[in-house]
Specification:
Layout: H1 3-16, E1 17-23, E2 29-34, H2 36-40, H3 43-54, E3 63-67, H4 71-82, E4 86-89, E5 102-104, E6 111-119, H5 123-134, E7 138-147, H6 152-158, E8 162-168, H7 169-179
Parallel strand pairs: 3-4, 3-6, 6-7, 7-8
Antiparallel strand pairs: 1-2, 4-5
Protein name: Orotate phosphoribosyltransferase
Domain Phosphoribosyltransferase: 44-149
Family: Belongs to the purine/pyrimidine phosphoribosyltransferase family. PyrE subfamily.
Length: 180
């Protein structure tokens, strides 16, 4: 890690790493977790994370697509940092109003980069990539703030999606220890 990335990791660890029980959707309980809402609530940290992530956006990207809910503030900030339009992805189509699953920028026929806060198994990003591909979007890349080593990178790679992560879980652990 560079000095600036180490500093950012330390700030993220201090702001968004929580030591407490956290239940995942599959029922697994973690003893600590990354609270993306604490990141999103700190405008300077969110800005700095987006600036750092902007260098990970692949050449030729046309749309950044944030996965609800953690990816939405990130994609807004990353859109502002890069000048690329943003789309917002729901896990399921809205039941009323527009009844859309994809809001914001048009994605059909465009090179879309998925954006999320944390990647664990990769299942959520894979589901979003599949849904976008059905709309005609070209999805070959995904970005996240934090990658946990639970197989997400491998799963996505097996389905033609390259994952770029700003930090690995070990980066935050190391930074938290150094900050203590």
């Amino acid at each position: 890690m560079t000095t600036s990335t180490t500093s950012l990791a330390a700030r993220l660890a201090a702001t968004a790493c929580v030591t407490d029980a956290f239940a995942l959707a599959d029922g697994q309980v973690l003893d600590s977790y990354f609270d993306e809402y604490r990141l999103a609530a700190d405008p300077q940290l969110l800005h700095d994370v987006a600036d750092a992530m902007s260098v990970l956006v692949p050449e030729g990207a046309q749309v950044l697509a944030g996965v609800e809910l953690g990816g939405v503030p990130l994609v807004v900030a990353l859109s502002a940092a890069t000048g690329l339009p943003a789309a917002f992805l729901r896990r399921t189509p809205k039941r009323y109003g527009s009844k859309q699953q994809v809001e914001g920028a048009a994605v059909g026929g465009r090179r879309v980069v998925l954006v999320d806060d944390v990647v664990r198994s990769g299942g959520q990003l894979l589901a979003m990539a599949r849904m976008l591909r059905v709309t005609g979007a070209h999805v070959a890349d995904a970005l996240c703030v934090l990658e946990r080593p639970l197989g997400g990178r491998l799963l996505l790679n097996e389905h033609g999606v390259t994952l770029g992560s700003l930090l690995l879980e070990s980066d935050l652990t190391t930074s938290a220890g150094a900050a203590s």
